[in-house]
Amino acid sequence: MTTLSLRVVEAGFYATVQDTGRAGFQRLGIHRSGVLDWLAPALLNTLLGNPLRAAVVEMHFPAPRLRFEQAAVLAIGGADFCPMLDGRPLANWRQYRAEPGQTLTFREPRRGRWAYLAVAGGLATPRWLGSASMTPFAGLVGVLGRPLEAGDELPLPTLARLGDNRLALSPTVLPRYTSDENCPIRIVPSAEFHNLDDASQARLLSETFVVGADSNRMATRLEGVVLRLTEPIELVSSAVAPGVIQLPPDGRPTVLLSDAQTTGGYPRIAHIITADLPAFAQRRLGQTVRFTRTTQLEAEHATSNLRQTLRRLAAAVAVTGAAHTIQKPAGAPATR
After folding, report:
1. Helix ranges restricted to H, the chain
2. Torsions phi, psi of 185, nearest 5?
3. Is residue 169 domain-shared with residue 192, that is, in the same domain?
4. Alpha-carbon torsion 135, 128, 9, 52, what sign?
5. Fewer CB near the terminus (10 Å): N or C of the chain?
6. pLDDT tens per residue across span 132-156
7. Do 163 and 321 form a contact (C-beta atoms < 8 A)?
8. Are 170 and 189 found together in one domain?
9. When comparing pLDDT for 281 and 330, which is higher?
């Protein structure tokens, strides 16, 4: 049951409601959609005690202006857009309480490309095929089928208790958003990697690419380096997924993202590992990226380690919240 909402006062640029997406429908031609940076919303939802797939607002800069019409506990993470609540600066990766009538704004982009707003209990927006993620290709109405617009109301859940613990995530678990060439993105070769000529195989793993302006939620075009095949090949369209690096005829690699098609016919030369896809998605237009080769086993270990961290955080948040609920004396100040 829902009551009041989070109202969109100003829409910003391509802010959408997202969750972890629609798994299992690719065989029907329905792409997964979902958040571009899967790790940031997972950390925020864990911090707030939500399920990992709770719906959040994904924001590009300029970000939307949002007004709370009921009290809520919130957390912001991913890119740092200098959030402010009624003009008071907020920090990323920690809990805050918003009171009815307070307005959330974002001043400037400092780091990263996509920021996320999560609220305790998750957004109570409509679902399609079990997901709240916006998809622009299915003819859906409202926030399920388009970016946020001024006047939209995002229902907030009715919570039995609004915590005020002001918990924050330790810097040791936070993702690093950097274009530092000493922090390359890890990839594993895909089916057509060996169709690259020897020089292109070497360039893919040694040269610096630039995130092109022709990039969106479907894919990121990489500029600055042109790769070539040993000879032209014709492929039957095959399944693709977020993280796949395709090579169109112009030789500029394209990295598929959350809104990508379910099949494609361009050569699949590599795949960004799941653990590094958030860091890649957070690269801003014009920033650089380098790739380094890893193994499937190492890729699985990296993702497993992140998921273990999330489980440990969830346990710590649950215990800390319970301790504050039981032990904090009446009238005691909120923990900071």
Report:
1. 39-47, 198-204, 277-281, 296-327
2. -85, 130
3. no
4. negative
5. N
6. 999 988 889 999 999 999 999 999 9
7. yes
8. no
9. 281
